[in-house]
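Researcher: Batch entry, complex prediction.
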Amino acid sequence: MQTPLEENPMSSSDPSELDDEIDYRRVHRSQHPQGSVVRFGSTPFGDGGFTVIAGPCAVESADQIDETARIVADHGGRVLRGGAFKPRTSPYSFQGLGLEGVQMMRRAADNHGLPLVTEVMAPTAVEEMADLVDAFQIGARNMQNFDLLKAIGASGVPAMLKRGFGTTLREWLLAAEYILAEGNDQVILCERGIRTFDEATRFTLDLAGALWAQRETHLPVIIDPSHATGKPGLIPSLVQAAVAAGLDGAMVEVHPEPESARSDGDQALDPEQFAELMQRLERVAGAVGRPLV
Amino acid sequence: MQTPLEENPMSSSDPSELDDEIDYRRVHRSQHPQGSVVRFGSTPFGDGGFTVIAGPCAVESADQIDETARIVADHGGRVLRGGAFKPRTSPYSFQGLGLEGVQMMRRAADNHGLPLVTEVMAPTAVEEMADLVDAFQIGARNMQNFDLLKAIGASGVPAMLKRGFGTTLREWLLAAEYILAEGNDQVILCERGIRTFDEATRFTLDLAGALWAQRETHLPVIIDPSHATGKPGLIPSLVQAAVAAGLDGAMVEVHPEPESARSDGDQALDPEQFAELMQRLERVAGAVGRPLV
Amino acid sequence: MQTPLEENPMSSSDPSELDDEIDYRRVHRSQHPQGSVVRFGSTPFGDGGFTVIAGPCAVESADQIDETARIVADHGGRVLRGGAFKPRTSPYSFQGLGLEGVQMMRRAADNHGLPLVTEVMAPTAVEEMADLVDAFQIGARNMQNFDLLKAIGASGVPAMLKRGFGTTLREWLLAAEYILAEGNDQVILCERGIRTFDEATRFTLDLAGALWAQRETHLPVIIDPSHATGKPGLIPSLVQAAVAAGLDGAMVEVHPEPESARSDGDQALDPEQFAELMQRLERVAGAVGRPLV
Amino acid sequence: MQTPLEENPMSSSDPSELDDEIDYRRVHRSQHPQGSVVRFGSTPFGDGGFTVIAGPCAVESADQIDETARIVADHGGRVLRGGAFKPRTSPYSFQGLGLEGVQMMRRAADNHGLPLVTEVMAPTAVEEMADLVDAFQIGARNMQNFDLLKAIGASGVPAMLKRGFGTTLREWLLAAEYILAEGNDQVILCERGIRTFDEATRFTLDLAGALWAQRETHLPVIIDPSHATGKPGLIPSLVQAAVAAGLDGAMVEVHPEPESARSDGDQALDPEQFAELMQRLERVAGAVGRPLV
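Model: Structure tokens for the complex:
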């Protein structure tokens, strides 16, 4: 016979939502009912248009990133992305070119008149990278690296906060709250897919969650369908979905030669696919009155 | 000291994808590379347009369903939905009006020139409902009720197969395969959200998964953002996303007076919200060259 | 600029737990604070001991099931399991021997003095199988096949209700409530793993959830580590865990020759492994004062 | 008509398991088939016994941690735990006493003859804490904070690596690989529950996953049922399960006065519950031949 270990029957209620967990006072939409405009260099997010960030998963060489920047700029992308410090699941995978890669990216971005966003992984690296970047990316694995969030908050450099693949929407907003609490309100949110039981796409893109975040906060919200799905064939459709749904932008991976990429090449668009995506996008964006920024 | 229970070290490979699990030979796109057109009455799905199914969660009375049918038809909905046999988590919840509800719905649909789709829960009910409906809905909880799938397959009545909230995309295609294997190829797929760790929206709408299914099969694919999110405020954006992404339609809940609904009223659109959704939708549909059916 | 679609800001609270969802009045432990004893034939569950159900995934032949029944009985298993009606993801997989398989199993069980439990998939089959079985298994895919639950409830035949792999603990209790609401209180619960993002084991065995269910209800609760993990090397450890944790039993797959099984053979124990498991189990069961039934 | 975006049909195969993802060459059991023994101070893990770590969620005062250390030592706990640097979802929650808290904890541990383990959150804090601790805890949110893993690897201080709540078993092993790759092989693994769709327990304890990790690697593996479930009533049963299953230890939260705790008090055992747990545990440990360390 089972003897209950507790004198009182186990409570049916589950206090999963503590008060602290919903105290995102600075990012809440009530602070700016019209929504905030955030700028990476001179490129705006949240001004009513739709902003495209594009570039390779990893910076591989000066030529590769310069060529990519040219492609991005030529077809209407407005921010260059690329990883120089790569968070890799395995210690034996390519970890990126580091600071040298950031410098290559800076030159490529300047050559083609684009601002750049790149990932920073350690609080100590924030200062040394601050002058080289227009915006910091906080990667999914670091969404709750609170020391990093505080350092970026203190730096005043604009930030793109990716949602952790195992974290809730409310935790994402609270991570943004860490940055704003340090006095830095130049934050955009990027949904990049969450972990679910289905493996047909790499992660499950939570489009409704991105829309929820956009309504719950005053921060611009974009999606990253490249990492979310790992399937280039789905990316144009998902970017069109994002603009029609009213989101503020998208980040896509582009590589001059995807088949030779050193990291995640199988999810990158080639130049022709990117050009086609931007053309389709422009049509939809016009129809919904959200011009490409 | 841990003594291994197996003589050979545990294999690193996981045979999660058995051959049987990918044998959806009849639904595979290679069977109909141009895609299939499926008809509920005279309303097509998959002909290049975008088809809207609308109606209440539950049929509550002859007046309620007739009034809803009028609203649906007036604003461009092309199929009436409504539940008469309701799968309810609790035995003590309202279980629907049953066959009488189906008959009310039939009259309402006819009055307003719409075909109807409604859920059937038991194999034995397929025959008695076959003459009253234009299409059967197979609900999420019954997606792997194989006897039901076979009975619907044998009936020849068109079917809308909702994805189970805990089932993979491949299992969904294999469930459709059960229907086609009985000789019935009039099947559309409906993504309605899957279970994940996030509770801000009721389920997580897997838009990328719906697109994946649309490419992998020749069947039309639609979404149900009402059940997926439980948040009327997100529904219009998600339907616009669906048309822009290239899906074949959407099903939304509409109720003349959501606040007085007997089931899931909090997720239904009221008539004014539905009218506004259809207007927005028409604009986007035109822009992407996928007219409302 | 994002225009909110709702006049009122989206509520932070999520009514995910409706009143109906926690109304499991008949299965709640308060109904029988000491817990219920359920019997399959003369074998008890919930009397303070630990009961082992064993057998093959599928009945394949009269010899195979008879030989398995002998192995089960010889080593202390107290109920024979085996599938004759198999719910299979693919329509092209082996679907079981049907009623003939149940009859083979009946003879094998009788030959070796064991009661039997086997899956029933359709409400219409309940009646024709009722005289042949000691208990019905309700499979994970049918946990919310409400017509089936009602039919088993009305039959009065004892039942083992497996948890759906995508369903919550509360939904599981409410599914049991459907059976009890028809007047049948001979129900045991079987946790068999849920779907999560991790694929190293086939499903994720929710041991804590099984313990939660045992405290929240008066029904006996067992686990099925064979389906949960798909890894024979983990099964003995998990069964020992179950007895030490205070659960009421376990169901394991045993096959005379796993490598030649027609279904899920890779997860079955061979006779020697089963014998060893039962020996280990006896030691732990004695230590915690829960003798093998 | 849907026009495929790709010339070739979408591949059915998903390369989710890249070669890099299974290259945990240093932690693989083949390196030490008999398993490794890891020591926090003089307390061993993995020597065939079962080791209990206990203490409060957060260090609150010198008295509170000293009193807790006394309770832990008196009843057979062999390592003191407690948080001084607390990773908190909200920036407005209590963040811990910091270095001062570690010093309080050091004195309490010394007073009662226990080694201590405490969380370190930033790479820069590793050096300043190294002399004060017997082992570092790497928290679930930091499991893939690769700079932190490298810093701990380089420090040579033993480490307890908690599994991230959204990370796979293989990612967990690869995170451990980062530490060993820096030359530090004093690592134990701690399973603390993963995120799933069920909310009845706070997380879902993956006991089978912990067993899988124990077989796949040579590292000791323990569980943390306190954080996994948030339900003190389930903790003793789960610890008994762990010892019977053959795991190497458990970490439980104990607080002199749970109801007045500043963090997660609702999941802590009070002194009496802890004493009872240790008594039950001793009985089971003896039965399975795994004495309490």
